[in-house]
Amino acid sequence: MIKRSLVMFVILSMLIVGLSIGAYAQDPEYGGTFVFGRGGDSVGLDPIQVTDGESFKVTQQIYDNLVQYEPGTTDVIPALAKEWDVSEDGKTWTFYLRENAMFHDGNPVNAEAVKWNFDRWRFEDHEYHIGGEFIYYGYMFGGFPGVIEEVNVVDEYTVEFVLNKTQAPFLNNLAMVPFGISSPVAVKKWGEDYFKHPVGSGAFKFVEWQEGNRVVVEANEDYWGGRPYLDKVVFRSIPDNAARFMELQAGTIDMMDGVSPEDVESIKTAEDLNLLLRPSMNVGYFAMNFSMPPFDDPLVRKAFNHAINKEALIGAFYAGLAEPAKNPMPPSIWGYNDAIEPYEYNPEKAKELLAEAGYEDGFEFDLWYMPVPRPYMPQGKFIAQAIQNFLSQVGVTANLVSYDWGTYLDKTRNEEAQTYLLGWTGDNGDPDNFLYVLLDKTNSDNAYESEELHEVLVEAQRTIDKDKRIELYKEAQEIIHEDAPWVPLVHSTPPLALKPMVKNYIPNPTSTEKFKDVWLDQ
Amino acid sequence: MFNYIIKRIVALIPIIIGVSIIVFLLIHLIPGDPAQTMLGERATEETVQRLREQMGLNDPLYAQFGRFFKNLLRGDLGRSITSNNPVAVEISQRFPATLELSIFAIVFAVLVGVPAGILAATKQNSWFDNLSMLVALIGVSMPIFWLGLMFIWLFAVTLGWFPPSSRMSVGVVFEPITNLYLLDSIIQLNYLAFIDALRHLVLPGIALGTIPMAIIARMTRSSMLEVLKQDYIRTAYAKGLVKRVVVYKHALKNAMVPIITVVGLQFGVLLGGAVLTETIFSWPGLGKYLVDAIYARDFPVVQGGILFFAIVFVLVNLVVDLSYATIDPRIQYN
To answer: Do A359 and A390 fall within a single domain?
Structure first.
């Protein structure tokens, strides 16, 4: 009897193991062309010169950085640099490069090449500081030359960075797509037109770019990390969301981003389509201007925090694909303060607070909304109307205002808006990139000028120790919560739709990812 | 005739100057800052200022115009602020796509619109007349984005007869020369590419051609009705000519002038780029590109693009004017 059950057990176990191997550990296949449909064309393919996601999507494949983000997270892992160390004071960083990395034009990726790239970016009088404005360099490293004082070639494969002050997010910055390393030979060869002839050392090589139409890249057979599974990737620009979705259904593209919320349900139920959610690295918010009464009164700002039903907004305008925000930064970023008790949706309490502030009869104010869809707020106007409605229930009247996008940014930047909707998508996955960039007194757009917050944020910038920084950022979030400069609305998780044959696609919070490990089950 | 052409081309010069001044002023006077637009949600005041400085936007307006105009005289339209690509290159790459689509659309519109209009006129108040004018009315008022999406859904997704969008399938091996794909594939004797490019033209071409087709049909009908009432038509019938000859030889020729005018105007409008059609069918033409440039406040692209359109429009009108003489020998140009 025992023997029989033992045999049964063995057979059963083998069956289960066999089944699960069959179902789960499918071996990746090499080959195939992966067609990715997106909303717009790339602006340029020299990553340091562009700021748009559609350019980064492509350059991400062509270039390597010194370090990169781990798939699916913003944790930093080795790329061209196999390891690195940093001095006590956090000002000297030494990177040890791998020795088998080659640019697509056959030149080696060595310390000289890395130095040449950084020199080109940071010195405005560099011979090849041409072809654009190097926006992201100035932005992340504080101008030209900014925080990077020296880049030294220690030996052929060791490069040293000396900073003039501690920059805590330095490593996270280096992993950002704009800082992909170009072949100096290619940059010299093409000059101002380099953005049309990109040469990096990444897993895919550039093939062609038909403007307004498509960009094609192909597998780099000699990639230091091993050849990618895909033979070719085609990025097609299909501006209209509905048309792009129909292309996916027709099978002329394999994957798309910019899925309309109203299509999410049909993707979930369709057998031949899958839905992936990108981890959130954004925040959509409603800001109130401290310099324009009555928003100088914290009671009014808190009342507004109680008056807006975020869950309802998410259900109605994000197809449920977002989480309500209680902090200015998303939970995917380390340092997130989950202990904060959100202002709950409670119109009665809101009315009480307004009465306490002396506005029991309500008031009228301007509410600005964005004219363009953004990942954190796909339908600005509808969200504004919903907020208008929530606020009317507590007795205040919002007049809706909008401008075209450039003007809107210009005017909010100049603190001309009384209240406004806006948001932010993070660059480097560091808390500083949300809290300091959005709410420090030197940066805020709504005249929020907390000295207390400024001190904490600057202290965190000077600290290299991550645990200490986490503590500081948690404290910062408490201060912000108490001051209530915004109603933080949502962190959206942008949906991606794809054919089931596309395997191992891991969306990164930073909005783009490398396709090296993606494969097609053909 | 020759003198006339020269005169018209010379007349282009004040038009170019006028258009460039107006466009320059308009785009610079509307609010919105290209540096701010480019830097996005969180640009610090310093970065915006530095970028404005680099773009030369902090110079006085007349200095900026002087620079623009000086370069224009040398045939240099400048470089796009967003992509740093020379504007002339962008136009030369995108205009052929617009041209190809416009030609297809106008040919479709004429081939369907003119016969429908003639038939409706000769059978005035018949069921065909009523039906075709109803169709024309619907055509004129058709929202093109809806029509386009329905075309894609029906003919591409459901029936699979035509590709849903873009100019050529991903797998087709093809090297563009002039960027007019039909022409290029003929030059290269690339039969597969030709068929593929043609198949891609059908849906956006018909969608884009629908409104001009309706307008042309209505114009043909009313113009023909006018002519058919004339005395010489009665005389022609009295001579014993058959209806076909009267309609097509005697009436149509005289009805042609207003029709040609409408066709020319419509063609000029189509060449101005079809933003909606280009968006829905992912057609890499000039229209959507230019609208995007306006939103981005990409001054050089907007200036160069509109100037280019103005010249194209004037040239199309010139061709239309010249064609009157070939139809109606009574028209002379001196």
So the answer is: yes
